[in-house]
Amino acid sequence: MAKGADFGDGVVLQTITFPDPAICSQDALFFRLSGAARRMSQPDRIVLADGDGLHLDAWVNLFNLGNWLRHTRLDRLHLTLRGSGRMRVVVWLVSDAGRRVLRDAEHVLDAGLTLDLTDSIAACRAGGGDGLLVLDLTARGDAVMLGGHWLSPQGAPASLRLAISITTFRREAEVALTVARLCAHLDRHAGRGDGHDGIHIHVVDNGQSVSLPPDPRLTVLPNPNHGGAGGFARGLLAAQAAGFTHCLFMDDDASFQMENLVRTLAFLRLARSPAAAVSGAMISTARPWAMWENGAVFDRSCKPQFVATDLRDPAEVAEMEIEAARPKPAGFYGGWWYFAFPIAQVRFYPFPFFVRGDDISFSLANRFDTVTLNGVMSFQEDFSVKQSPQTLYLDLRNHLAHHLSQPHMQIGAMASARIALRFFTISLVRMHYDSAAAQLLAWRDVMEGPEFFVRNIDMADRRATIAAMVQREVWREGGDPTRPAPENPDRPVPGRLFTLAMKYSLNGHLLPFWRLLGRRVTIESPQRGLVWLLWGAKEAHFASPDGTRSYSVRHDKRRAAALMVQALRQTLRWRRDYPALLRAWQEAYPRIAARSFWEAQYGAPALPPRKAEAQAAE
């Protein structure tokens, strides 16, 4: 068996991983058990009796061979297993053509086991280049599984230096926990030669309130509150000045397994493309067994990829992973809850959107070769839970700005106007008039031109304006005992005729006597994004699942009519001014989304001593 955690002359691609109870309680995302097999903790291990099975066809622990072959210089592949007792080990190659056995033999694990699976590379390529490797382990007598690795024993891969950039705003406890977990992980990997020694953590403190224990691998950067865009721009400036090769943007409450870093580092070190980047998936804390977004595509709207894939179902997981390994569609981007990229490929810095849309713009402008890796994920509250008039204002701004600023995203005046009208109409039919008004404000602000974003880089005035506009869409403590029972999101969607009637009447806004005809509904916050639950409603009560927080909205034809008149006027103005607006955005974007723009905001970061001496010598 190869020795040491870095396996001497090889590189660990992927570790057989068990769930961290502080992050995820969903064992089914990691493995399946059969018989009386059970997982034990402290330390993690799987205990099996004769005939029990451990199946590593789950999303986190399968090995997407096709993905690695398509994007990296992988030419040899080994699998190591650690444990005790005798087990039957079956290695499958799973592809669109079905399942094929590559190995099937019994082994004693007491001294460790290494299998040379290099022939699987040829088998995968012969099948078209797409394929997953999965393991089935069956105990022959009492046995224990402790873990293992997929690794490449080939020569040393490219070295890299990774700067982790975390932007935070007055979330002191969350960022302290994230940094502590990162530092503990780096301690465990110190000296292994697997890329972790080149990692440094930059915490960009937009709230200027963070106090963290000193650590040579940590730098805290107090910063004005220019949102995520400004925070990540500051982190990128620091990384670039210090000579890092790669940067990883992540959220301050980064709820992910530290295995993310192992896989990301290995992939980037072996990547063929100098523009290779890694985008982490997002999984909603409300439904931790389902994919929320495994990368996304922007084209008129944000289209999360593989949304609702059941990560407990090996068949759905295999279908998703085989497709995910294939070339990405145009407009593919990665969310900044976890996004690692090469600094040398950065042509444009973040545009000052404050938040929402900065990650989309960054990917569209820089054209990274972005990939997703199975098991590289972050658990987050989904965006429907966070939705408010302010977030919808921010969402519409960036949707319109992308189509104005990126030459390859031009779609014309009326097609882009339809984006704004679609946002507005969804809020209108949901009786969210505060949100609709905020979205009309967003549209007007985009029409002020890109300089509006420079003047409002901290969003302070606009946040105050939007807060003053909000009349009803405010979460309040306490529930309403008279509210109806919550709508069931799993019930069948209403029929086609009823749905068409609701759409074309704008959910009763164009029908008389709606206050008599409509119904009252209750919708729990995780389902707020499901518009069809509101069809036929004259009043909607939105509540947290535990019933402790809520707000209500009601049908109001007069306010809806006034908003529709505003929307019509803005559509006509947009159509008239579109050519001049397009020119203004495309001329200004390169100047604003530039390193020099952000250096003017924060000053050029101080160079580390060696780099400063080299520049002075030049």
The number of distinct β-strands equals 26
* Helix content, binned percent: 25-40%
Q: Overall pLDDT, averaged?
A: 93
If helices are DSSP runs of H or I spanning 4 or more residues, what is the number of helices? 18
**What structural class do the secondary elements suggest?**
alpha+beta
CATH class of the largest domain: Alpha Beta
- For the record, the CATH architecture of the largest domain stands as Alpha-Beta Complex
Strand content: 15-25%
Shape designation: globular
What's the number of structural domains?
A: 3
Can you describe what's shown?
- It is built from 18 helices and 26 strands.
- The chain folds into three domains: 11-152, Jelly Rolls (Sandwich), CATH 2.60.120; 162-381, Alpha-Beta Complex (Spore Coat Polysaccharide Biosynthesis Protein SpsA, Chain A), CATH 3.90.550.60; 390-563, no CATH class.
- Helices cover 35% and strands 24% of the residues.
- The strands form five sheets. Strands 1, 2, 3, 4, 5, 6, 7, 8 and 9 form a nine-stranded antiparallel beta sheet that branches. Strands 12-11-10-13-20-14-21 form a seven-stranded mixed beta sheet, sandwiched between helices.
- The model is unreliable at 1-8 and 609-618 (pLDDT under 50).
- The longest helix has 36 residues, at 557-592.
- The protein is globular, with a radius of gyration of 26 Å.
- The protein is α+β, with helices and mostly antiparallel strands and 618 residues long.
- α4 (227-241) packs across α17 (595-602) and α9 (389-405) packs parallel to α11 (433-447).
